[in-house]
């Protein structure tokens, strides 16, 4: 057992920087290798991600049993220096993100982009992917607002490369939209940092938690709204969500999967940290409830209208971000626990769905449901791998999607009031419409007969549909199914382990709302 290992707390604190530094080091080595030694590159990538996952699990166990771990970078103590803080929240999402990125890395290697799709060579894809992973870890562990900005920029620098692989017109157009959005949010982030530092004289999260209490309400509200606007853009909250469905579907399948699973969750993580640590129970909570309500409904209505699987999943991604913000906006331990549980669930399930969509595209050459059909018979494994996480996303009992929604519904009803109850109702409607969207996709792509089999019966002509005949299927490498099946199994494991996982999220939410453990761990006697 990890708890029985004779590891001192000082060593554990030193390990907190490993999830950030190790991927960056591996990216540098892979860039130096270039396109040579491809087998070594693959082993280096998988070894790096596996070690990062192992360290993340160790940090989670240590943080859960002994409180937050603090690593002071450069030997400078907080709040003068920048520190990494591994508490329950940061290590929990770090473990999930490390597991997900490991599976995506294995998938990308099995997909053999360097040999089969020359638009994503291993010599470029893997370093960019590792830089993005390092940025995600830095954002999760950051105990300083400026270092949080650095983490965002680091992950964005890697994502720019991944999004525009191949230089096709669609990817360049999507990359331009994504880049403009990212640059705008980064400029706003810098403005927010300047306002925060001018008002408080610090950017340390722990010190800000104590100094914001002494600020005038108008100044505190200005800082909170500016930071929330930044993170709302990155999390794709309504009305700043239009960029996402136009950007994500054009990228290679591994990049799209990790974008959908992780990048928006970094924005959600920042909102959770911001509202729990710096602005607990503030007046903006009501605004967040309205934003959550609009995000859920607009996103799922967009999903219902789509005929492409990638775009449908992109819109459901937007709508389900609303569930997480719903829990945060309640400003209660129960609501926060539900939000954290849903973040863990959604990272895994959404990533697995996009990877399965990549399998469909590789198998058939398309993700348009108007051109698909008969996949249940032609590719039963893909059918199962899609059906299970799709039902999980929809919230079918007793899967983790249902359990997360149940936690949020109970928290909303316990909070009471017209707006929380309206959010509960919107959450139920969103869940039903999500089920309708994925069931429609399943019926058309998997269950109905192929276009050729439907000829002579009830079938639309090409003039009616505007679509070409169904693309001839190709053989799918068996190695691609392994990492996807692992992610689907992980999503199911959340149901089996729902008791321990929900208990962990409750402890995490309690620590967040209490705030004192975080502040004391970082500042100690320097408060």
Descriptive labels:
527 residues, mainly alpha, two-stranded antiparallel ribbon, 24 helices, 2 strands, 75% helix, ND/Mrp_TM, transmembrane helix, Na+/H+ antiporter subunit D
What would you say this structure looks like, in words?
The chain has helices at residues 9-15, 18-33, 38-66, 88-111, 113-116, 122-141, 145-163, 169-200, 205-211, 217-235, 243-247, 253-278, 284-304, 309-329, 333-364, 375-378, 380-394, 400-415, 418-447, 451-454, 462-465, 481-496, 498-514, 516-523; strands spanning 69-72, 83-86. It has 527 residues and is mainly alpha-helical. The protein has a two-stranded antiparallel sheet with strand order 1-2. Helix 1 (9-15) packs across helix 3 (38-66), helix 14 packs antiparallel against helix 19 and helix 15 (333-364) crosses helix 23 (498-514). The longest helix has 32 residues, at 169-200. It is globular, with a radius of gyration of 23 Å.
Strand order of the largest sheet: 1-2
* Span of the ends, CA to CA: 36 Å
Mean pLDDT: 86
- The shape is globular
What helical percentage do the residues reach? over 70%
Radius of gyration (CA) equals 23 Å
Q: Which runs of at least 5 residues are low in confidence (pLDDT < 50)?
A: 1-5, 113-120, 457-473
Can you count the beta strands? Answer: 2
Count of helical segments? 24
- Name the structural class: mainly alpha
Major beta sheet summary: 2 strands, antiparallel
Helix and strand pattern:
HHHEEHHHHHHHHHHHHHHHHHHHHH
Q: How much strand? A: under 5%
Main location: membrane
Subcellular location: Cell membrane; Membrane
Protein name: Na+/H+ antiporter subunit D
InterPro entries: CPA3_Na-H_Antiporter_D (IPR050586), NADH_UbQ_OxRdtase (IPR003918), ND/Mrp_TM (IPR001750)
